[in-house]
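Operator note (shift B, R.M.): manual run for Transporter substrate-binding domain-containing protein requested after the automated queue skipped it. Running by hand, logging everything below so the morning shift can see what happened. Input copied straight from the record, untouched. If output looks odd, do not overwrite the archive copy; leave it for review.
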Amino acid sequence: MLGISSLRAAAFALVAGLGFVGATAQADAQSLEKIKKAGVIRIGVMGEQAPWGSIDASGQNIGYDVDVGRLIGEELGVKVEFVPNAVAARIPNLLTNKVDLQMAVMGMYPDRAKAVQFSKPYSGLKIILLSSKKNKIETIEDARNLRIGVPRGAAQDKSITTLLGDVPNIRRFDDDSSTMQALVSGQVDAIGGNTTYKINLDRASPGNDYEQKLVFNEQWQGICTKLGDAEINAWLNQFIDKVAADGRLAKISEKWLAQPLPSFPAAVEGVPFTVK
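Run finished. Output pasted below as returned.
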C-alpha cells in the first residue's frame, strides 16, 4: 500500500508535469531575469520550526533557512519575501506560484523529486523517534502500541507508516509545533521528528526527560524549484558551492545548529541535483 506522502507526491508530480508540458528553454532562461526585474524573490520557509524557520517576538523570520535565503537575495541583488509554510503545503505552494523557491526543510527523497527539482544539499539532519526515558524503545516494534505523533506528510510520517503500517495509533498533526505540543501535553507517547526537535522541546518544557530513541535515516535538504527550471537550478548549485567554500554556510550552521557544516554527499539516490 502506498503511504500518504507517496500518494501526495504522485499527484504533485502529475500537476508539475502538466504544468511544464511544452515549456521552452527560453522560458527557463528568463526565470532569473524575471526575479531580478521584479526586485524581489519569494522564498518558502517554515514558520514554526526553530532553528530552521520561525517568527521572533518582533514578527521577523529567523533561522537557518532564513539566513541562507537572505544570502540568496544578496547574491541576486534583490529583496527577499519569506513565506511561512505548513508542512503539507510546501510543494503545493511552489507548484501554484506562491513562492519562487521552497526552502522549508525540504528533505531530498525520490518521491518528492518527481514533483520538484532539488538543488545540491545545503543542510542536513536525522529523522528520529523521541519519547520519555521511561519508555524502553530499542526497535520500532517496541513503539507499536504507543500513541505516536507526526506532522502530516512529513518524512517521519512516511518512515513510521512504512515500518508499522497505517495503524490507528499514529496521530497526524498539521505542523511541527502541534506535534511537539502533543507530546508535552500527553496526547501522545512518542513523536517522529528530527534532531532539532530536542532543542525546541527543551525550550518548551525545561527539565523534560525526552530523548532520542531511534534514527530512521539521515536527511539532506535541498532548495526546490519547479521541474524543468534549468537556469535557476544551475545558479542555485553555483551559489551553494560558493557559500560553502567561502565559509558563510559554515557560520550559519554553527549559529543555528551549534554544529560544523557536514560533508554533503555527491549524490542522493533517486534525487538529481540538476535538470536533465
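Quick read of the result: The chain has two domains: 4-124+221-257, 126-217. Residues 1-30 have pLDDT under 50 and may be disordered.
Leaving this for review. - R.M.
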